[in-house]
Amino acid sequence: MNKRGIEVLKDSRLSKSTAFTKEEKVTLGLRGLLPYAISSQDRQKLRVIENIRRKDSNIEKYIFLSALQDRNERLFYRTVIDYIQEILPIIYTPTVGEVCQQFSHIYRIDKGFYITPEDKGDIAELLDNWPQKDVRVIVVTDGSRILGLGDLGCNGIGIPIGKLSLYTAGGGIRPEYCLPIMLDMGTDNEKLLDEIFYLGYPHKRLQGNEYDEIVEEFVMAVQEKYPKALIQFEDFITPNAYKILEKYMEKVLCFNDDIQGTAAVALAGIYTSLRIKNEAFKDQKIMFLGAGSAATGIADLLVKAFMTDGLTEEESLKKLWFIDINGLLVKDSPNLMSHNLPYAHECPNMPFLEAIREIKPTILVGASGAAGAFTQEVIETMCEINAMPVVFALSNPTSKSECTAEQAYTWSQGNIIFASGSPFEPVTIGQKTFVPGQGNNVYIFPGIGLGAIAVEAKYLPDSVFLIAASELARQIHQSDLDQGTLYPKLTNLRTISFEIAVAVANHLCEIGLAQAEKPKNMRTHIKDIMYDPSY
Questions:
Q1: Are 345 and 331 spatial neighbours (Cβ–Cβ below 8 Å)?
Q2: What is the pLDDT of residue 110?
Q3: Burial of residue 327 (number of CB atoms within 10 Å: 0-12, 13-18, 19+)
Q4: pLDDT for residue 1
Q5: Which residues are marked as active site?
Q6: What are the pLDDT digits (tens) for 295-354?
Q7: Contact, 274 vs 281, CB < 8 A?
Q8: What is the DSSP letter of 471?
Q9: Angle CA(186)–CA(190)–CA(192) in degrees, nearest 5?
Q10: DSSP 8-state symbol, 514
Q11: Are residues 162 and 132 in contact, defined by beta-carbon separation less than 8 angstroms?
């Protein structure tokens, strides 16, 4: 039965609020339910922005936008797309970190789906409760390592919700195709377990085989219920992140954004930084602060990039060095994990600063979650051994950044190429203003997702992420590089995602991993399936 009257206004996908015409008001039974004036979507959008700018805190802005999404989905996405530079920090990093921390206190209408240990054996049946039957993109977390904030349990659902809104706004994937999932395995965060308002499974985290069995049941249930869906694993602790990815990456359509998405964004930034330095990629030596899933994910992709540049695997590995809490990662380092072993070189252990002086990296990448770890002495040392060092402070949210843009540019006297994981304002040193680029995964995952579902990919090999990184780097303009910016303007996100999607989809067809027949014109095909929220 077609909806009429108040039911239309309460359906977020149907409602246009004050934009319904006189004729539509008559046809849909809306006379008397709306004010007299008819607003265009552009006028509504201006009203939204005016209201957002009136809010005192980012979390209040987030709550306002979330409520808008609940009542008028198309207006929400039209506003996000047209004001992406202003709204991205509200619906994703850094505000989403605060949202996750306060999730149980600011709970409104839920947008997520929750699976707990009590659902074991029933997960496929449970998915029948989700109203949409054609799901194409799932973002799933277990809340064990949310950004740089640690174990937030069920509160981490804010991450899948935020990521999927960016799949739609940035990649044009229809919102009804998107499903945010929390694998609520419990939490080891004692503060949350003692919290009266905590909404999650109130037990210690599931471990070992019991944990693996629920992940397996979830993945297989998705194959049964949503055989065309891409699964994006998000914010799992490093051991589980690698274990899950290695088990499923060539069996089902999936990827881990922290490992592979971050890697592609970082590689793109490195490629563009070398256009500023006018140096060859194969001549770089790269040091990582942090040896978790993000850092080693970047290194794994860099090895493949070095090898495509003509280096052997052994030569490529020697270009990459890691610092963890115990200092330089070496063969004798204690408790090495499997993903660290290839980068543990035959070398004496030494602390961070000494390692910089000894190894002389050209590029320093922070993925540690250790706020302030790039001290003035670290930046000055990088400048002593390089005419123009490259420094990436990628940890999120802003409070976890290894250094700020202002610190990096000030301590280097402007002789640095800098990018960060969270947004920073421009910095003026002398007569020059630097605009720091944000190495945000939003540049990568929407385009990869769009490309994958456009051709119904079987799975995503590493080559897809090399393709995406190269395409992202290609999108940067010389005017951006002149300001020290390593990434394209976020205002071009839809175009960037489209170009990545085309490149990825064509590549998947070429290597035989596309299940759908290759369209005659890939660009037209992808453009046609992209969601347009206008009305």
A1: yes
A2: 81
A3: middle
A4: 55
A5: 92, 163
A6: 999 999 999 999 999 999 999 999 999 999 889 999 998 888 889 999 999 999 999 999
A7: yes
A8: H
A9: 65
A10: B
A11: no
**What average pLDDT does the structure give for the chain?**
96
| Phi, psi (rounded to 5 degrees) for 193 | -65, -30
Beta bridge partners of 8: none
What CATH class is the domain 443-529?
Answer: alpha beta
Please answer whether residues 451 and 504 qualify as being in contact, where contact means their C-beta atoms are separated by less than 8 angstroms: yes
Determine the average pLDDT of the residues in 372-382.
Answer: 97
Distance CA 48, CA 54 (A): 10
Distance CA 417, CA 272 (A): 10
Residue 292 DSSP SS3: coil
Q: What is the pLDDT of residues 47-74, one digit of tens each?
A: 999 999 999 999 999 999 999 999 999 9
Angle, CA of 23, 28 and 33, to the nearest 5°:
90
The answer to whether 298 and 444 are in contact (CB under 8 A) is: no
Nearest CA among 59, 63, 79, 61 for reference residue 17: 79
Q: Would the pTM count as exceeding 0.70?
A: yes
Q: Are 469 and 298 in contact (CB under 8 A)?
A: no
Neighbours of 331 (CB within 10 A): 11
Q: CA 414, CA 388: separation in Å to the nearest integer?
A: 9
Phi-psi region of 150 (alpha: psi -120 to 50; beta: other; left: phi over 0): left
Domain boundaries along the sequence of the chain: 1-39, 95-252, 267-439, 443-529
Q: Which residues, including other chains, have CB under 8 Å from residue 457's CB and lie 6 or more apart? A: 230, 253, 451, 508, 513, 514, 515
Q: Distance between CA 504 and CA 234 in Å, rounded?
A: 21
136's CB contacts (< 8 A; 6+ apart) are: 173, 174, 177, 178, 226, 228, 229, 230, 453
User: What CA–CA distance (Å, rounded) separates 140 from 256?
Assistant: 10
Q: Residue 261 has what DSSP assignment? A: I
If 0-12 CB within 10 Å is exposed, 13-18 middle and 19+ buried, where does residue 280 land? exposed
Is the separation of the CB atoms in 456 and 514 below 8 Å? yes
CATH architecture entry for 95-252: 3-Layer(aba) Sandwich (3.40)
Domain 267-439 sits in which CATH superfamily? NAD(P)-binding Rossmann-like Domain (3.40.50.720)
